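Contributing: when you submit paired examples, paste them exactly as shown. First protein:
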Amino acid sequence: MRLEFKRHGVAGVLALLLLGTGTAQAALFEDDEARRAILDLRQRLEATNNALKAQADDSAQLRRILVELQAQIDNMQAELNKSRGAQEQLTRDLSDMQLRQRDAQTGLDERLRKFEPATISLDGREFQVDPVEKRDYDAAMEIFRKGDFAAAQVSLQRFVQRYPQTGYMPSALFWLGNASYAVKDYKGSLAQFRQMLNLSPSHGRAPEALLAISNVQIELKDSKAARKTLEDLIKAYPQSDAAQAARDRLPKLR
């Protein structure tokens, strides 16, 4: 309605003013009518001024409203941008956290695998050992393979003492007996081979252990005991390579 007044109200008021002026001129010599016309003109002019003032006030108020709305829109846009920035940062942080978690899980799995028992197949037997246990056995055997029998004897002796329940025990005792024999610790070697046979008489290296015992007994100048050991070997493990070696040696023993 106020916009309509803007387009037509001012023109209409001016037309009325002109119309009123013509009326005042026509009744110039009629005082009462002239006074009434002047009063009417003044009222119309005051109404016009009030209308224009109201329009100006409304325009100023409208401008204030528009400015406030624009400020609100700007604030909302700033908050939205801030929210988007925070969301993007949160997404990056989450991605970084997930990456660190995967890395930590991978590292944990690797560390756990170092402590998980390993399945070992050795000398015809299969058993489980701890990784540290395997490491120590392999280290002792590496010394033996290098031909440092004195150091191997010490290393293997420590191993059997440290791991009394290990699945490596029969094999460790066998090689310990050989290391002791190599350094001419015949009594120690004899005890270690016998301990190995008592622990695991069906072990894959049991025939070799008996043959080694006969060698130790020969070194100890006990030919009778050596002959008895070779006969026991042939009887207990007739199909073994060690038994064939025993058959070859028996005639040479007096």
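Second protein:
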Amino acid sequence: MRILLIEDQPELAAVVKKGLKEQGYTVDTASDGEEGLYMADNYPADVIVLDIMLPKVDGLTLLSRIRKGGNKIPVLLLTAKDALSDKIKGLDSGADDYLTKPFDFEELLARVRALLRRKAEGKEAVLRIGDLEIDTPSRIVRRGGRTIHLSAREYSILEYLAYRQPRVVTRTQLIEHVYPEGFEWDSNIVDVYINHLRNKIDKGFSKKLIHTVRGTGYRLQPDSDD
């Protein structure tokens, strides 16, 4: 899962980013509203954590622009204002939830998880490709009834392939989904993770689910002669 954190206080942004990454999330950051809007438009995320008091473009204006563009991504507002009128204004602008500063990180984490669960309700909670099952709320993967243990990065790649199947996913799309913007990656890093997944998902099974589309990328497909 990918989270976009838009927060202009460097210390707070660093703490929140570190905590989210430790929970297995991929985190992009922006320090002002202008940069945040660019990131929201060009680097698709699963949740946006958005501070209201931002330089250049304030959080509520940014949120309104995101919604006017048709983007329905869940948004958690961070605000130093605890007046009821401010909270109502935030929700009316299109926010899905709000959290008043100062806050406990565990509460922020719980609210992010709740937004992700709510988002998953619009999709299938359990993805099935052949005899592979991906339980997205619990992040549990099984094949043939056997639980398969994946790292956070492996799970993110597999889940993304599953949501996109049977379409082909390019290496660039995988990089943009799994890694933060600006990440310096080796040219073969995706291939390395795909090999890890094949050893865990396909090894020991007669039907292979992870397929390489030469010169393009990868796809999950239960019945293929690739």
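If you have annotations for the second protein, write them as plain sentences, like these:
The longest strand covers residues 2-6.
Residues 101 and 168 are 42 Å apart (CA to CA).
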